[in-house]
Amino acid sequence: MLVRLFSAALQGVEATEVDVEVNHVKRDQFKMSIVGLPDTAVRESIDRVLSAISNSALGFGGGMNTINLAPADLKKEGPSFDLPIAIATAAAGMDTDIENFEQYCLVGELGLDGAIRPVKGVISIALEARRKGRTKLIVPLANAEEAAVVDGIEVYGMESLHDTWMLMTAQKPFAPYFLDRQAFFHSQRSYLQDLSDVKGQHQVKRALEVAAAGGHNMLMVGPPGTGKSMIAKRMPTILPDMTEEEAIETTKIHSIAGRLRDESFLVTRPFRSPHHTISDAGLLGGGTNPGPGEVSLAHNGVLFLDELPEFRRQTLEVLRQPLEDGDVTISRASGSLTFPCRCLLVAALNPCPCGYFGDPKRECRCSPPQIDKYRQRISGPLLDRIDLHVEVPLLEYKELNSDDGGERSEVVRQRVIEARNIQLARFKNDIGVNCNATIPSRLMRSYCKLDTESSSYLEQVMGELNFSARAHDRILKVARTLADLEAAENIQLHHLLEAVQYRTLDRKLLM
Description:
By secondary structure, this protein is α/β, with parallel strands linked by helices. It folds into 2 domains: 2-179, Ribosomal Protein S5, domain 2; 195-510, P-loop containing nucleotide triphosphate hydrolases (Rossmann fold), CATH 3.40.50.300. It is built from 24 helices and 18 strands. The strands form 6 sheets. It has a 5-stranded parallel beta sheet. α8 crosses α22 and α22 packs across α23 (493-501).
């Protein structure tokens, strides 16, 4: 007897439907084999499946069982095929027809006792099942909420192989998992940190607001203990809430990486802060079976690189193209996978190895060659891709002891949202442009027009400070954001003046 069911295999952040076919031929000798380019975890499913079937009061019959996972040229990885293989094997061995099998997509890892364990990438699988016209998705109970986020498909969260068998053979009714999607997506976001926790540093908070409003990358330079890390951790609290599409896309990446532990769905923007000892593969993604790196895990959120010069220069240089393009491609002999990485980069560094160069109160003990070597770890092209450069000075005691921490995050976030709404309306007809930081060169003249006075000033600045063409465009983009924060139709001279001051720090670092 031949039984056919449907499952899915993960490829990068997407899933591809897989046909699970089991052919049972009655023979005196028992044999079971899997074909279709399975990896070790899939081949080992034979032992898990047979034990789970036996402990679930089901049978698999004697004889020859051939399991085919199609398409045969697509590599199958992980234990998520256990459940469909077990159901198909039991149906073939017990000569049981599964009615309306084409409606179902099944994924799940089996324990030896028949319990169903959670797997990775369920939200990607749900999206693929809906695209293929499947109306019912059977997943482990622990993955049910994650899968139910996808609209237009019934999700059944199952705890055991026996319950799944009863559902698919219509011997016992089960209700689909219910999720109030509207309440789920529009629930109030809560944060442990608030921008008002940061004392003083008003000019840095202003730069943080500008970065959030326009999606600009930001670099903070200052001695130790001035609050650089504290400020960076509060960036997500002033960013607009993720849209439903952004939340699903972000959750897909974390699900595939196996990072969804305490929550089944990400409703707040991610904040990733990798240690400076991270490898190229850890930051960008890769490995034998390529997976997303930290820059992709920060997709639609914030990537914070503290102590920027302590990262290996080669590791930092590989960030340049992903920051520009918004995605990273991992190429292997077996093929290429692309992971999205549209994130907001926030970096922090000390002005010298000891941290006190230029401090009026503490003496710097670094020699000029040491300072030069330290600063040269950051290349000019990388600095060019960071829109805002801001100094973070030491605070006076009066500021530290003050009860006034300034505006709360929700107040700043409201201004950021208003500026973002202006940008969304402006770019509604421009595919791939959603904020000022992503304005392509072909649209610069349309959206970043300057009057005669402002144009003359920018020409003078470009000549005196030797800014690159990329820096020129980024100055205009920041000025456009400053205008949006004031709801101004055109860029004015004071917007340009403020935008230029955010670019002068890279000249100091490279002197």
